[in-house]
Amino acid sequence: MKYVLYILSITVITMVLMYIGIIKEKNLPIELANRLYKKCARKVIKYLEKNESITIPEIRNLIKNETVSVIWSKKRLGITDLNSFVRHLIDYLLKEEKIERISGKVNSFRLKK
Questions:
Q1: Running DSSP on this structure, what letter comes out for residue 102?
Q2: What is the spatial order of strands in the sheet that 108-111 belongs to?
Q3: Which whole-number Å values give the CA distances from 80 to 15, 18, 37, 92, in the listed order?
Q4: The domain containing residue 104 runs over which residues?
């Protein structure tokens, strides 16, 4: 009877771990995209803390080779369409109210005060 309980407990633990792995694998693309946006946003904000403003071409140069991954997967996510990603990143930063447009300058941004 003792061995049956051991076998059942190992089976239950294995099933729970497999279920967690399946859920994590299903949510992997969303998590990688969120990490990429946050990593690039941190880079832009860090740049703006040292400099007064940033333009779209400077943002492109700053984040062009960024990739992200998670510990439990070999999959990586990088930027393939740089122009589209920069537009979405700027929209994200404006929506979060971390940056603002500089009036009078086209495609120029600064930290929100």
A1: P
A2: 54-55, 108-111, 99-101
A3: 37, 32, 13, 18
A4: 31-111
